Structures are given as C-alpha cells and as structure tokens.
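An example makes the point: we print one protein in full, the chain in one-letter code, the fold tokenised, without further comment:
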Amino acid sequence: MNKYIAAIDQGTTSTRCMIFDHGGQVVAADQREHAQLFAQPGWVEHDPLEIWERTQQVVAGALAKGGIARAQLAAVGITNQRETTLLWDRHTGQPVHNAIVWQDTRTAAICARLARSGGQNRFRRKTGLPLATYFSGPKIKWLLDNVPGVRARAQSGDLLFGNIDSWLIWNLTGGINGGVHITDVTNASRTLLLNLATLDWDAAILKALGIPRAVLPAVHSSSEVYGTATGHLQGVPVASDLGDQQAALFGQTCFRPGEAKNTYGTGCFMLLNTGARAVQSRNGLLTTVAYKLGSARPVYALEGSIAISGALVQWLRDNLGLIESSGAVEALANTVADNGGVYFVPAFSGLYAPYWKDSARGVIAGLTRYANKGHLARAVLEATAFQTREVLDAMQRDSRVRLKALKVDGGMVFNETLMQFQADMLGVPLQRPAVAETTALGAAYAAGLAVGFWNSADELRAHASVARQWQPQMASRMRATLYAKWKKAVTRSFNWTD
C-alpha cells in the first residue's frame, strides 16, 4: 500500500528529501549542503554533479531514517531553486560548465545591451519580467557566448538546458538512458523566455537572445506524472515540479485570489495569488505562474523577490565571524534595545524588487562610535523586515488588496525577534503554519494530487493549521520613522557600479 509521498527540495545552499504521510505530516527527512563557488566578484556557481550526488544521498537517507521502502511511496515531487541555469550533454550527462546561480550578476552587460532596444521592460508584457541578471535566459546566452564550442553543440542538438528541476528530473528518470527532459510552467516562467499567454517558449525572444529552441525542455503542468524514477526510487512516479516559491505558496494552501505568503530563506520571496489573471505590475513586482494542476487553467501570482535575507546572516557568520552559527544572530541582536541608528542594505547582487537596480551594492549606513556588533546584528535582521515591507507596499498598490494577515515560512521564521519586528513593520499579523518548511510540502501536495493520493485542494486546506502568530505592537509613528530612515539608506546603495 502506498502510504507516503516524497519531496525533493533542492535549494540554494542544500538539498533535502522529506517524506509526508496522508495528513501532511513529516515522517522522515534528510538534508545535505553543497558548495557555494565564487570564481570572481559577482559570480555565484554550483557544481551540478555535486547537487545530483547530494540528491541521491538525501533520498537514501530519508528512506533509511524513516524505515520506509520505496514501494510505500505513491509518488515523488520536485521543488527547486528556480533561475539557476545549466547546460549539459544529452549523450554523456556531463555539464558544460558549473551551474550559474540565480544570485549571479555576470550577465549585467548582456541585460544592458538588450535594454538598449525597448528598455528594461522590453519583454515584460509577454513574460511578466524585467530584463535582469536574475533570470535564466541571459545566463543561457552567457554560456553559449563564453564557453568554447558550446553554441555549435547546442545548435546541433547535443546539449540540454535546464534549471535544477530539469536536471534532477532528467537524471531521476534515467539520464542518458532515456531521461525525460521537461520543466513545468512555474520554472519556465522564470527564464524570461516563456510567453505567459501561450505558456510556451516565445520565438521572438529566443531570436533576440540567440538561444536555439532545441536546447529547451518541454513545458508541462506542475502536477502530472512525467515519468518513472530509477535508482533509489526505482518505479516511483515523478509527479510534480514547482519552483521553490510557488511550491511554498501551494504548501501554504494559498489557493484563493488575494492570499499571500512570504518565505524567509537565502532570499525572501512574497507571492500573492491573483487567480486566472496575470496581473502586470506597475510597481516593480514580477508576474509569474503560481501553479497549473494537470489540464486545469493556470493560476498566476505577483511576486516580490529579495535577493539577500538569510544569506546576510550567513555573511555575518562566514565573512565577518561575528557569530558562530546562524541561530546565534538573535541572541547577539538582543544584546541591544534597538538598531542604534544603523541600517544595512544588503545589495550584494544589486537590488531586486521593487527597484531592479543591478548597479546597486551593499551599504551600512548610520554608523557612529556608539554602534557595536549587537547593533549590526539587529540591522542584519531588520534589513529583511524592511525589504519585505517595501514588497508588501508594492503588492498592495498593484493588486488593490489590503492583506489582513501574512502567512510565513522558511528557516528564519523561528527567529522571534525578526518575526515580531516584521509584524511591527507591516502592521498586520504573521501566521506560521504547523509545518514551517512548506516548500517541500507544496511539492508533495502537487505530486499527491497527480496520483490520487489526495483528491482536492479542499482536502489539503483541511490539513492547514497555524502554530504561531505575531501581532503588531509598534506605534505607527515609530514604524513610519524607522521605515523612512531605511528608505534613505537604500538610496545610498544606488549606482555603485558603472
């Protein structure tokens, strides 16, 4: 009897396999980190072969920890870091280069050249996205233009493109021995190559970027059986594919227009369900596909993407050595009563929503002799809350929906200091679900729906419960004062690079 659903959650810093029962509860999990590679300033890479190795390890680890046989799995779902880009040889399975991570800024010059005709929003009407280093399309072009021999191999049909979802599914389903080369609409909508109206690759944009269609995966829904797994999951249907933030939206059961979630991870990502309508943003947000279940109509979302949130805590740990572990940042921040006038704008990869300024760089503003490491730690946490406030303001202007509460998930939601400050800065309650890591849960839900393990969205919603809630406590005048200082600090980061 199929008692469980597995989900592979391939993130920016680690890969995890989680196994869920019919009640949506975690019964087993395993997780492993992979290396972050920084060849040059602004470059961020991953080794795709290491990621595939980690994937196999965590699948085996989760099965072993739970004492679960693969025959007990009804399906496996995939969720992934989205825009991270790689090309590999369909005959050997070898990548032509390390994967270029979504945070990487090497394509700034490509984006600038493309923007000379039509501006930064040249492709926004079709794709919902501005021209930015964030997305996969310019990264593909960089690989084709800069890795010797790659363009000719791509044009001859020998190479395959994928974000990490496509790479994992291809390998899971056999690799060079018949692996399935697909992606889903959520991941495809992050490439700058997908037409949101047709849900297919746009020929005019491919021509503008010089990308041969032959390298691109087939675009499928987010919830269907794509193929059957091999290896540790031999015989298990591979039945969902969702970009990580869309998976979190799905895992939070934000199935109704107007429902929103914010995920606090390496970056920070707020998504608002807009239903069957793809809302074009006037305030610096992204229009993206939220999910598509089988043959049903697609559901769209507005997204505010923040490049650096949890990664800033890691920077405080790894680059400055001010804390020994990421969890220690809260205790250090609580050694002081406030930020001491210090503001940290973490524009390490430029600014994402709502500014989209590739030339911005990180700044620490407001330093005096009074400031100490506790103030810096508090400024690190507050940066995430301030950036989220900017995204929420833009989202409410675009959607004309005033949120009554925000569902939150991700690793940082266990930081009480951050969550209380976030509620104070937004002026609305925050709600953390019983299963805080909703990215894997969303992939499991979508896979389970595809194979009949669960029957409907209503059944999934019945599983949802709030484990913790934070109410705003800050006076509105103080909120406005702090936020105004943040906005002033942000301007100091503009136009740092030429």
User: Anything to note?
Assistant: The mean pLDDT is 94. Residues 253 and 483 are 31 Å apart (CA to CA). The chain is about 35% helix and 25% strand. The first strand starts at residue 4 and ends at 10.
